[in-house]
Write a structure and sequence with these properties.
By secondary structure, the protein is mainly α. It is built from 10 helices and 3 strands, in the order H-E-H-H-E-E-H-H-H-H-H-H-H. The N and C termini lie far apart (48 Å).
């Protein structure tokens, strides 16, 4: 038997959770922001129950912190977690990129080319949110082309602190051309079946996160633990 009321509550909980998580990850809600169940309930036009449940879930994922006498805050970026996520991603992407050079579907190659064309458009428009989405999609296409989407999903679960630093690194006042250039080189190495070049390029590409992290901590000290 279906229970419309229960289905509605479940839908509201998932919607609030998903939108809150997106706002934390893309820094619409910056690290350290205080959140109120009552205010969020009004903003999302729901009762406080789905908001409270979403808060619990996000706290379990390390994106919210509940502090006595201070309430619920968006967690600060944990540098150690971000670096560990980058390490995991580098190890796995180096392995996957070698697989891609051994045999990559034509349709996946075409997807990469469409993605790269869209990146150029995002560069011209200085649209950091679109550029981030295209960056993520570019790497996902490679994992999908190698039948490794489960591996990609596992990376996404461990990636939350790193994602926020990457959003910071795509701030409007920064130069993103190197990002496109490295993506272009990765796609070319896959097309040319050059595993050593592909692996070296993906390693250099992901190492940028470490350099960016040091810069970002100096520029946004209040955002980091």
């Amino acid at each position: 038997m279906n229970y419309p009321y229960e289905t509605g509550v479940q839908s509201a909980k998932d919607r609030v959770y998903s939108q809150l998580k997106d706002q934390i990850l893309d820094l619409t809600l910056p690290p350290g922001t205080a959140l109120s169940e009552k205010e969020m309930a009004v903003a999302f036009q729901v009762s406080r129950t789905p908001v409270r449940e979403s808060f619990v879930r996000l706290a379990q994922e390390g994106l919210l912190q509940v502090l006595p006498q201070r309430g619920t805050l968006v967690s600060l970026i944990d540098t150690e977690h971000a670096l560990e996520a980058r390490f995991m991603r580098e190890q796995l992407e180096r392995a996957v990129i070698r697989l891609a050079t051994e045999g990559f579907p034509e349709e996946s190659s075409a997807e990469l080319e469409r993605n790269l064309a869209a990146q150029l458009t995002a560069l011209e428009a200085r649209d950091e949110h679109l550029m981030f989405e295209l960056d993520e999609a570019f790497h996902r296409i490679i994992f999908a082309g190698c039948s490794k989407l489960n591996t990609w999903a596992l990376l996404q679960q461990a990636n939350t602190h790193l994602v926020r630093t990457r959003h910071l690194s795509l701030a409007p006042d920064r130069d993103w051309k190197h990002l496109y250039s490295q993506h272009r080189a990765i796609a070319d190495a896959i097309r040319d079946s050059n595993p050593d070049l592909a692996e070296r390029t993906i390693r250099d590409h992901l190492q940028l996160a470490v350099t960016d992290l040091n810069e970002l901590k100096q520029k946004h000290p209040l955002y980091f633990k």
